[in-house]
Design goal:
single chain, about 550 residues, D-Maltodextrin-Binding Protein, domain 2, Dipeptide-binding Protein, domain 1, 15 helices, about 20% strand
């Protein structure tokens, strides 16, 4: 039987760039000149993996949609790299002693790119629109405790919560609760298609969108209100930035190597060496502080109601070897479903679970799955032990389907579990989500607050459990308690306990901790990562040297 490494290396070889000869690096500065003076103007072309299904950050569900939206959408609050919060569209705020009332003072010099003034009425319009359950917007999960907002004067607004929510500032710093023009909000679902009608207050605005090809954003020349993490003030340096949709790894790598694009994201593991330390190129990695790429198990339904089967999936293969073989050391294996760079990650979980094939097989025997069919899969009462992993096609990137196929192969060999990967359309998954019939859903979450991430996935009001019954009431209560807790030390203890419980019950099987990856030519300056998303930061600070 070939090793895991051989099998996954073969899979990678099918999609690896054969050669990078003729690359454009020879005409570029060998290294990045950190002392260079920023240059105004220019057009930057960025190769990205995924074309957004929806460009409206209130409705979008894809990480790349949020990354693009941050270029044209600002938030009330900004989040610094150290996790603290600072003014942005709001200049300051106060919180009532009971934690239920937030008062925000707003900038008085901001306009949306369609000319509509930004004011307290616009903030209220955004929050009320998101909180409207009839509109079923994805961002509603960020306002679970929202009760109402009151305009106190044109540049002061009060937000009232139904209960204290320690994640509110985190939510208000996210692009998912970013501010859109009231005129844009009136267009409803039509905003998903992008275009100039999708107006924010950001440093760029929509110029053109070519479906299946690219989107081009043009500089907002009036911009003068950057977030706290920005490196400069005033308008963006670039005149325009074009995001080209290049889902094939080899095409992105080839495009950068040959000078067709200036930057790419999601560098494939086999191509890191083509850019890291190579003359004419730069390679950057970001933190891993959001959720790990995780198998989320629907413990309320079917075979996965049996904790023994869930634990057999968790422990029945060598995850370290699978991740290392596929990602070649560029991505760390995960121990919690919260990324290791998050301050509230349960780092003490390291080494406590997984790769215990004997225990996995003993658990399956105890559960009565003792038979074997002609293909070697376990059976019970004539039925095969088949567990479906439904993976929406719009979310597949970074070899994640190949990773699951590797796990699928290992579980068959070591335990006889039939882990059946099925690629779904977004519509199919949405139907499963709505009626609670999903079985295993692989995903990451990218709000930066640990309690928010855990609640959105596994809480009573989390998007995976809204339509199911028989959920774990202890888990729901623990999550609600963490959301209301304002003491940082107590909250950390609660969040760590929840992560340990999720692993113990095998409600989740974390796989690897994604890190943002960027490669660019040495003409590009100002690259970095968004503190909220672990994705590339907006193009606001980017500039290009003249070649």
């Amino acid at each position: 039987m070939p090793s895991i490494a051989r099998r996954l290396a073969t899979a990678l070889a099918l999609v690896t760039l054969a050669a990078t000869s003729g690359c454009g690096g020879s005409d570029l500065p060998a290294t990045l000149d950190e002392s260079a003076t920023p240059v105004e103007g220019g057009h930057l072309v960025w190769g990205v993996t995924t074309e957004p299904v929806c460009f409206d950050p209130h409705r979008a569900t894809q990480t790349n949609a949020y990354f693009l939206a941050r270029n044209y959408v600002d938030s009330l609050v900004s989040k610094r790299e150290d996790g603290t919060f600072a003014p942005w569209l709001a200049t300051r705020w106060t919180i009532s002693p009971d934690g239920r009332t937030y008062t925000f003072w707003l900038r008085d010099d901001v306009r949306f790119t369609d000319g509509v003034p930004f004011d307290a009425a616009a903030v209220k319009a955004n929050l009320d629109d998101i909180a409207d359950p009839k509109k079923a917007q994805n961002s509603l999960a960020y306002l679970q405790s929202y009760e109402r907002s009151t305009v106190l004067d044109p540049h002061r607004i009060q937000i009232r919560l139904s209960q204290p929510d320690s994640t509110l500032l985190e939510s208000l710093s996210s692009v998912q609760l970013g501010m859109l023009s009231p005129r844009s909000l009136a267009r409803g679902d039509a905003l998903c298609g992008g275009g100039k009608a999708l107006a924010g207050t950001g440093p760029f605005a929509f110029e053109t969108y070519r479906r299946g090809q690219s989107v081009t954003l043009a500089r907002n020349d009036a911009y003068a209100w950057p977030p706290a993490w920005a490196d400069h003030s005033g308008p963006a340096y670039l005149d325009r930035v074009t995001f080209k949709f290049l889902p094939e790894n080899v095409v992105r790598t080839g495009a950068l190597s040959s000078g067709q694009v200036d930057v790419i994201e999601a560098v494939q593991p086999t191509d890191v060496s083509a850019f890291d330390g190579e003359p004419g190129f730069q390679y950057l990695t970001g933190p891993s502080s959001n959720t790990a790429f995780t198998l989320n198990l629907n413990y309320t339904r079917g075979l996965l109601r049996d904790v023994r089967i869930r634990r057999a999936i968790r422990d029945g293969f060598d995850l370290d070897e699978v991740v290392k073989s596929l990602y070649l050391g560029t991505m760390p294996r995960a121990w919690s479903n919260i990324g290791p760079d998050d301050a509230d990650s349960a780092t003490e979980l390291e080494g406590t679970w997984g790769n215990d094939v004997d225990a996995a097989n003993a658990a399956l025997d105890a559960a009565g799955w003792t038979g074997r069919d002609d293909e070697g899969f376990r059976t019970k009462d004539g039925h095969r032990l088949t567990i479906e992993v439904g993976f929406p096609d719009v979310y597949i990137r970074d070899y994640r389907d190949v990773l699951i196929q590797g796990i699928q192969s290992e579980l068959k060999r070591t335990t006889g579990i039939d882990l059946s990967l099925r690629i779904l359309t977004l519509g199919e998954f949405t139907a499963q989500e709505n009626n609670g019939t999903w079985t295993i859903y692989p995903n990451t979450m990218n709000p930066g607050d640990t309690a928010m991430m855990l609640t959105q996935l596994t809480g009573q009001h989390g998007f995976l459990y809204d339509a199911t019954t028989g959920g774990d009431q202890r888990l729901f209560a623990d999550l609600e308690r963490a959301l209301r807790e304002t003491d940082p030390a107590k909250r950390h203890e609660q969040l760590v306990s929840i992560q340990k419980y999720l692993i113990d019950q095998a409600y989740v099987v974390p796989l690897y901790a994604p890190k943002g990856q960027l490669a660019a030519t040495t003409l590009v300056h100002g690259l970095g990562f968004d503190p909220n998303l672990d994705t590339p930061a907006s193009a606001y600070d980017l500039w290009k040297e003249r070649s």
